[in-house]
Amino acid sequence: MSPVMSPVMSRVTDSMSRQRAATGLALIVLAVAAIAFPLVFGSPVVTNYAIYALIFVAVVTAWNMFSGFSGYISLGQAVFFGSGAYAVGIAAKAWHINGVAVFALLPLAAAVGAVIAVPFGLIALRVRRHTFIVITIAVFFIFQLMAFNFSFTGGSVGVSAPFLPWSPTTFNDRFYYITLACAVVAIVMAVLVRRSRFGLQLRAIRDDEDRARGLGVRTMRVKLVAFVLSATVAGLVGGVWFLYLTQVQPQSGFDPLFDLSLVLMAFLGGLGTISGPIIGALIVEPGQLYLTIRYTNGYLSEILLGALFLLIVIFVPRGIVPTAGEWLRRLRTRGRPAVAPVQTSPRAETRA
Amino acid sequence: MARQIYQAIVDGILVGGVYALMAVGLTLIFGVLDIINIAQGVLVILGAYLSYTLSVRIHLDLFLGLLITVPAMFVIGVVIQWAFIRRLRGRERTSMTLLVTYAVALIIEGILYEIYGPNPKQLNASYVQSSVHVFGFYLSYIYLYGFALALVLIAAIYALLYRTMFGRSVRATMQDHTAARLIGIDVNRVAALTFGVGVAVTAAGGMMFGATNSFNPNSGYDLISRLLAIVILGGLGSIGGALVASVFMLTLESLVTIWSPEWAIVVFYAALVVVLVIRPTGFFGRQPVRAQ
């Protein structure tokens, strides 16, 4: 480094540490807001929205951990979600577990998600992106049909959860914190994966799988581990969702719109970023829920969902977070030379 | 028992012809545009509703109605490609086109619900109910006519691809986009027309589907997953593969139905998974490592 550069460099490190402090502060504010939310909005109607939003935050973050980082778009996340839900329901019935003790079954839901993901991944990850999407759809339909046809899944009636002896407000408040915990776990996992060598390998696969393999990345193993991690979270959250809704049917547990909503959320916010899918989930899920409650026939919400898709693709094809990041950067650097070293270094890409 | 099995095989082949008609459009679109058109299923249903409207409102024969619905669907296809798919480029193109066609599917489905409601409909004509007894098999007229129609249309698509200048540009584009553009082919025009042709054949497929099944706006999902299974099994982009895979899958399903109708559809998808484990490119697939 020449001495001429040093003022610039010090300004760069300065702005970076300031940014880090701002991020930390924002996280604390967010955490306080998230924890205080049910204390401020006590109504079960409001917390219901929040719980669904958090469920989707957790699942879409888990989805993004595999599909967003590796570029393999999966339309089979509902397989793990639904299986987690069914696992809790069936186990509770078979082992006669009642009351609060059913929460002890949640690790089982996560394990079921993971166990299903291993053979699923071993088959589906052998092929490249286009075919992968189709295989996940096929496996998804196999699971939905199995749920319809097996006797232990209760056919089209499905399975109901044991009764939890809580008043509606307590019920929603407690589930709010449970789903919040799930969302936090999923986000922390995603951040750790993204920052690790493993996450870097995943993104190398996304950019150029053949070259990644040429450089010594064990692509199959990396993809499979990410797939299983993502499935574990989805299974866990599926179990929580089931206990909250107290029932699961084949159409609700294995819902094709569920997978599409996940993809929409991730694309809306920004595929492969951490905050993007979260923001996407916080926008899309309450909106969808509102429309379903408001217009019971559901057709209008379908048309609107489709139109929203098209608008995103046309106007913000890269998602809100990357596009907004670019605007901010352009605003900040307007009129003077851009601070080149920060933007061109590979670190600039890893933040977000 | 043996009689039942033979009947199932004959049924499977006839129904397979109808599915081939729908799958050919899908695989053609993939071959040229390198995208998977998720809306293909709901477009089939849209074709069925167009035929339904023509036959109920102005009492037009189902097959004659195709003279109106096929061009109509062609225009719809070209418009969809022109408005939404043409503008997608870049690394995430595959996933984006998937989303866009899915969004189109959702919108069409919602509109169909608004117009026709959720109650199942079925197309009707004198030949839908009656059947003929040949060599001890009961063959329903609609399947025979439909199979013949499928053969004619698939032959027409083959002729279009292998006997015309347009077909030559389509095949050149399938092989190599950049090279095709370099030798002066208007790749965008080829893409739009191919999408139109791929969607136009769904009008015929939809008429056949609507005459042999009851359908509502939601039927597109089940259909698209079957069609995807078929085109993957046949090898994406291979028209012959789509034909063979449709007949294979539908015969298999029809055979399993003898023992258990509930599990027949599971076998359908399981066959796809098994084949892909053995041969990741499908029956007639090209290289698995396609430029992405």
Description:
The complex is a heterodimer of chains A (352) and B (292). Chain A is mainly α and 352 residues long. Chain A has one domain (41-322). Helices cover 77% and strands 1% of the residues of chain A. Chain A has helices at residues 6-40, 44-70, 77-94, 106-124, 129-149, 168-195, 197-207, 209-214, 219-245, 250-253, 256-269, 275-294, 299-315, 320-332, 340-344, 346-350; strands at 159-160, 247-248. Chain A has a two-stranded antiparallel sheet. Chain A starts with 5 loop residues before the first helix and ends with a helix. In chain A, 44% of the residues are buried. Residues 341-352 of chain A have low confidence and may be disordered. Chain B is globular. In chain B, strands 1-2 form a two-stranded antiparallel ribbon. Chain B is an all-alpha fold and 292 residues long. Chain B is built from twelve helices and two strands, in the order αααααββααααααα. In chain B, α2 (40-57) runs parallel beside α4 and α10 packs parallel to α12. Chain B has one domain (2-278): Orthogonal Bundle (ABC transporter involved in vitamin B12 uptake, BtuC). In chain B, a hairpin with a 2-residue loop joins β1 and β2 (137-140). Chain B has helices spanning 2-33, 40-57, 62-85, 93-116, 126-129, 141-163, 165-175, 177-182, 187-212, 219-234, 239-259, 261-278; strands at 131-134, 137-140. Chain B is 76% helix and 3% strand. Chain A binds chain B through residues 71, 73, 123, 126-131, 133-135, 137-139, 141-142, 145-146, 148-149, 209-210, 256, 260, 263-264, 267, 271, 297, 299-300, 302-303, 305-310, 313-314, 317-318, and chain B through 30, 36, 84, 87-88, 90, 92, 94-96, 98-100, 102-107, 109-111, 113-114, 221, 225, 228-229, 232, 236, 262-263, 265-266, 269-270, 272-273, 276-277, 280, 288-290, 292.
